Fold this protein.
Amino acid sequence: MKEFHDLADFTAEEIQQLLDLAARLKRQPEPRALEGKVMALLFMSPSLRTLASFQAAMHRLGGGAFVISPDMSIHGLETRPGIVMDGMAAEHIREAVPVIASYADVMGIRAFAERRSLEHDLADREYQAMRGLVQLPLINMESAIQHPCQSLADWQTLDELGIPRQGGRFVLSWASHPNALPLAVPATTVKMAAMRGMDVTVLRPDGFELPEAIMQQARQLAAASGGSVTETDERAEAMRDAHVIYAKSWSSTRHYGDKLADAELRRQHEDWCVDEDWFATARPDCRFMHCLPVRRGVVVADRILDGPRSVVIQEAQNRMYAQMAVLHAMLAGGSKP
Amino acid sequence: MKEFHDLADFTAEEIQQLLDLAARLKRQPEPRALEGKVMALLFMSPSLRTLASFQAAMHRLGGGAFVISPDMSIHGLETRPGIVMDGMAAEHIREAVPVIASYADVMGIRAFAERRSLEHDLADREYQAMRGLVQLPLINMESAIQHPCQSLADWQTLDELGIPRQGGRFVLSWASHPNALPLAVPATTVKMAAMRGMDVTVLRPDGFELPEAIMQQARQLAAASGGSVTETDERAEAMRDAHVIYAKSWSSTRHYGDKLADAELRRQHEDWCVDEDWFATARPDCRFMHCLPVRRGVVVADRILDGPRSVVIQEAQNRMYAQMAVLHAMLAGGSKP
Amino acid sequence: MKEFHDLADFTAEEIQQLLDLAARLKRQPEPRALEGKVMALLFMSPSLRTLASFQAAMHRLGGGAFVISPDMSIHGLETRPGIVMDGMAAEHIREAVPVIASYADVMGIRAFAERRSLEHDLADREYQAMRGLVQLPLINMESAIQHPCQSLADWQTLDELGIPRQGGRFVLSWASHPNALPLAVPATTVKMAAMRGMDVTVLRPDGFELPEAIMQQARQLAAASGGSVTETDERAEAMRDAHVIYAKSWSSTRHYGDKLADAELRRQHEDWCVDEDWFATARPDCRFMHCLPVRRGVVVADRILDGPRSVVIQEAQNRMYAQMAVLHAMLAGGSKP
């Protein structure tokens, strides 16, 4: 396994092998599996869960990790090709990325969306520019449009909760938020649930439709797995018999890159804060998922986060086990996708 | 051993077991004792000794550590309960703390005093709020009113120096400083010396009395150990036959939380800079202790720090060994307090 | 081996032993050689390669590392002796450095040039002040006038490329840059190439001569090794039959510490950007070296960095292997210089 970038690059059987490996490593530690091995963690954007869980994952397997973030160095990192570097940035990614990789056995890169042009972000330009500079096994730690580690952990969480694949009803819901957030999590989540064979409903206000390219890919994945994907703004209908609601805010795709128009539109939907009344038509044991960080009282009410529906801590913890499986598969031959 | 929070939670015998373990690990390394184990270090306030010594302690025992500080993440961390998070903070401690803990086998938390209300800080509100969110073995890395790792290391240092328990004379002295500092170190130090059975004198100017709740607890500990605790502003008297002076600045308790009144009062005591003349009535070999960082020429004269009385580096180094003992007791069953 | 500070402290035979060890560790990992050992990394100035490569080096040898940089702590670190610390800095290097060292088996220190007085920087005052406080094995991670880890890695790279020692022609060339940079790399590089027995030409515009003390030391080293050192501003002449050009910008030594005069002088030499036409008189396979970070389009043209002449990534990667050899020699007895 040379790269972990897009869940859709793998067959359902390969995902299953990774999940089995994650479950095994959770039960049965292998504290010397990656002895002498090093992971390079390059963060172009800030992080808490990813920063912590990858370091912990490497330590638990007997390896080590180092972290590079642009503010730790002299240099902002320049990303534009062909530029005369007479400004602030003292180093270009064309040197920095291969150098960082040269110290490691596996590399993780985080590079958020620019959120100026939807086309640019769907093409994942920043990440792809860096990806092309790395020969090592490479893990996408969240890019403009991908967050495969989150989705692998979420799949593992759904399995642990016994939520059915075929016939499982999964609602991905937009939620209120003060800022225009990236599309990586919703785009990856809708594909994950579709690949898992679930009946997926994307619930969002008008103007916050997911990009058609993403929806189309999700529908193809659902067709292959026996699932389905639909999109609506009708909450009660979307939530009917749902096993799980996955809440997440994202930018308006209608006004992508236009901060003012986005802000005006999202202000009209401040009532999209998940609360107990959302669950009226859902299954009684319907679960609440979120990738974190989450704004309490804005995205979701305290009583949901603090109540029995919430599995957000379990999701976050599974980040570590899912990533241990990916690292093991890459470096210790632990599974063979 | 599930928690290391307050030295007074332990019997003198349990402390002795930890100190024996620290001494053993100093002599006889155990580089695989914590193989595959991970420590999470959460700093809500900055650090040098604690940051370095805990990472070194985990490495020496074969484990690993990761560090989270709020400025490393997108998010300031919100601590207030029940708040609508529509401001700057993107994450609440109610998620962040359990998530960070979920990646680790043991967790350390540092959260300084707010220094607005003495009652609030004596109740250690910030730390207690986070403490309640952690199921793991937990180490207090300095809170508003506790610094048990410092005191365990100081106890070890006193033992190494051969300073007697019964009959040992310990002076905890206030010292000059440009800023109003927290009470954690003096509060923990007076209790430590009392538990150790020493005759403790708190030397401080009028207006800088230690809180009565702390003094009362210290007197109870002294009663149990055969020591004593008194408080005075008479320097020569306090220092008479002293084995050791432990200098530290702290906030005025009379004007706690009132920066201007505190500053005015402390300006009157800029002569409280420990120098050789302080030792006139002390034992000739009286030692100088300080938890560091220390302001030279303000808290203490260079000639004292650079001279034979000073044991500040030994104290700092013992932080690592004392913490190795605590980690070993928690995770490797190395002693059974 | 107690210290790695100046390549000239070692004989050519001792350097050879370190390079042999580096090559062996590159071929044949020793993931338990430094089990339970800890490196302290103290950065008074920012870093990317050094930060990453030392952490990776320690992990690969089974040890661990921790990083301290002044902005991570409460305290700026005070360096001036005898000062009354009533300002911003809360800690003096006289405590901080021995304390950090007390947690480690080996320490690395980075402290850049002040760039106010040439005499001050040639005497390496900041670094020497800290060096005197450390009893541990100590590695210079770049000071005002030394960068031995870079030069050891560069020597290894020259060997790997098969560039001859005797008769090898090495050009160290000044290059354009928006800022007045330190002298550490050119000063160390000219000595390294001289020690290696090469014919070294320092190519620089008028006003950017290397300090006479450095040139004199380089000439002595060349005399001992059978090499030579000359200085010129004639590009075509300098580059004649060159095996390698090592580009680097540095401050004007004529106007050292005078930012405006330096800026005015360097503005006249913005054409000192290494490009293909520089190689007209060189050997056809003449290589391009640089220590990184490098400003594209300012120091060197993209086509050189991206073309077959460039070995900058190999140099950077060899930092890790060279440093592994130094660490191994210091802590595992891996070679005996």
About this structure: The mean pLDDT of chain C is 95. Residues 175 and 249 of chain C are 5 Å apart (CA to CA). The longest helix of chain C spans residues 312-331.
